[in-house]
Every structure is written in C-alpha cells, then in structure tokens.
TrEMBL record:
Origin: domain of life: Eukaryota
Identification of the protein by name: SET domain-containing protein
Domain SET, first and last residues per copy: 36-334
Organism of provenance: Leishmania braziliensis
SUPFAM superfamilies linked: SET domain
Length: 351
C-alpha cells in the first residue's frame, strides 16, 4: 500500500478482551448460536515471509471443536439478520443518501445481483464494493461520530467489524491488486470522495479503509446462493426482484436431471430452483473464522426445511464428517490454488 496513505482510521484502541466481549454481545443480540460445540481459538499456521516469527510460534485465529461432533450436525446457526450483506447497506439511509446519484444508479442496478464487475476482468464485483463502502462508513463513524453510530439502526455491526483481524495473515498482494482496481472506475473515485467529504477527511485516509474492507470480504465471505435467503436479505431494496425469475437465475443442478422414466420433478430441467447462479457476498459472524483446507470438515448450508423466523432463514455451519474434540473446523474456500496463493496473497497461511 502506498506510504502516503494513512491507516490510522483502522486502529482499534480497545484491548483484545474488550473487543472479544463486544463481539460476543453482538452474537448474542443477533442470535448467533454454537450450543457449546465450537469456540474461536488459535491454530498454528506458517508465518508470512516478511515476519521474524518462528514457524512453531505463529498462530492464527480459527474455529475449534469443543467436543466430539457427529457428521451432519449444525455447529453454528444464525439468522440472516446477523450477517453483513449488501441489503444492510441499502437499508442504511444515512450511508446510502451520502452517495452520489450516479453511484446509487450503478449499485442499485439489477446487474449487481448477477455479479457484475466494476470494470472488465476486475476481481471486485459491484455488490462487494457496496458492502465494502458500507463497512467503511461504519468504521469512519466509529472514529468521527460515535454517538451517531450508536443511535443508528445496524450501527452495532461495528462490534463485528472491530473483531476482524488487523494483523493476521498476509494480505499485501491482495491489497495491491485491489488498490489497482479501485483507481480507474469513476464509481470508486466518486464513492471514495463522497465518504471523505462527508466525514471531512482526506481521501488518503478513507482509501485504506475501503481496501481493508474488501480484503475482509474476500478472505472471510460466504458466497450466498440460497434464493430464499437472498430474497429475504435484499427485500425492500433495489435488488429485491432480482431472483423472481427462477428459470433465468437458477443454479445448475448438482446431479444430472432424472430420466423421463423417473417423472418430472424439481430437477428435471437441470437446474436447482433453491439456488441462484450468481452468489452474493455475505459476512457471517463466527462462521467467517473458518480457515481454508483442502480437507474440509464443515460447510455452510441454508436448510430448506429449517423453520424461518422473523429474522429470516437460518444459515448453518454443518459438519461433513465426524470431528474430534480439539480439531480445527475448516472449509474449502472454493478458489483454485493459484487464486488463493497469488490473487488473494494467502500463500503464507495455507499450510
């Protein structure tokens, strides 16, 4: 990251203990439950090359099983309302109203629901930029106007953001890629200028926060593709009707469609109507602590038969195999190895 840019807006002065207690309170308020099955702890990883830490002393936060867990158990359960997602950004009127009309027009276009990119071949999607700008807004409010943040609906999400790592892993390569992609598009420059003007800051102070938010999204996101979950999360927003056309937006079926002898069914067209083709980035507390492994033992699921509450469908972290007490819970991030190692800059923390 260029040296002229100031990262002081990212500093959190509270102790780790205070941050952890605030995060736990956030989870309790939003009904994130583990039922004692797992905890956030530290696991060994290879240290980044630019540190002097001994390999056996380098620790990274992760999810650890508190007891033996059987296959197909829900380890973490939460409602949609506990997550950070573009719907929360749309519904935050103070944030949305400070963006220029041309930025609102682009971010509110239905194409954003279908993973449109801010520029051709860019890693950044419009829905991810929207979420990053919203997270940046909350961080800047924390620094510049804490009372207003406390009174704002959804403002307590700052307790979740504050708990995200500031010095774990190696995101220098990813940050460099993101910085380059943020330079050219007018929408990025305009949104950054709007945030700087609103908080009376320089753009050099705002830009690192946007890059940090994007790093957190890319390293911690759940690519949410469950139709009912997305429809609930994005209700009353410009993207509310994006998934109404099931045939046009459905994801391909995981298994081949049944033969004609088997009769017509939900999968007879070769698509899964419960899932959408283009997932949207969600940040799910506790679940986002899962580290990557090719030998995953958990996965994120949205059960179709789980009773939806007033807080929306349930998002679950479910075991794929038996997990022993003390074992780390890991999932496969889904990207190709060269994406994990080169684009994401995670080559130092995969082992």
């Amino acid at each position: 990251m260029p040296s002229y840019e100031s990262r002081h807006m990212l500093r959190v002065l509270d102790s780790p203990e205070v941050l952890a207690k605030s995060f736990i309170s956030y989870c309790k308020r939003h009904n994130v439950t583990t039922r004692g099955r797992c905890r956030i702890g530290f696991v060994h990883r290879s240290p980044p090359h630019n540190t002097h830490t001994r390999p056996d002393n380098y620790l990274l936060r992760g999810l650890i099983a508190n007891r033996d867990i059987s296959k197909d158990e829900n380890v973490v359960i939460m409602p949609v309302t506990a997550c950070l997602h573009p719907g929360a950004a749309f519904r935050c009127e103070p944030f949305w109203s400070l963006l220029a009309p041309e930025v609102q027009s682009v971010l509110g276009d239905l194409a954003c629901a279908y993973n449109s990119r801010i520029v051709d071949r860019s890693l950044i999607r419009h829905n991810q930029l929207l979420l990053a700008l919203y997270m940046t807004y909350l961080v800047l409010q924390r620094n510049c106007n804490p009372p207003q943040l406390s009174a704002m609906p959804g403002g307590d999400a700052i307790d979740y953001i504050n708990f995200m790592p500031r010095n774990e892993g190696n995101f220098e390569q990813l940050a460099a890629h993101l910085a380059g992609w943020l330079d050219a598009p007018e929408i990025c420059r305009s949104a950054q200028a709007s945030l700087a003007s609103h908080f009376q800051l320089t753009q050099a102070e705002v830009r690192p926060v946007i890059i940090y938010a994007l790093c957190m999204i890319y390293s911690r996101m759940v690519p949410m593709d469950h139709r009912a979950c997305l429809q609930y999360a994005l209700q009353s927003t410009p993207l509310a009707r994006a998934w109404d056309n099931i045939e046009a937006t459905a994801a391909p079926a995981a298994l081949p469609p049944p033969s004609s002898a088997g009769g017509a069914g939900a999968g007879s067209s070769g698509v899964n109507p419960s899932l959408v083709r283009d997932p949207i980035s969600f940040l799910c507390p506790v679940i986002d602590m899962c580290n990557h492994s090719d030998n995953e033992n958990v996965a994120v699921m949205v059960p179709d038969n789980h009773a939806a509450s007033v807080a929306g469908p349930a998002i679950c972290l479910r075991t794929l195999c038996p997990v022993a007490k003390g074992e780390e819970l890991t999932m496969k991030y889904g990207a190709a190895p060269h994406e994990l190692k080169l684009i994401w800059g995670m080559q130092d923390i995969l082992q």
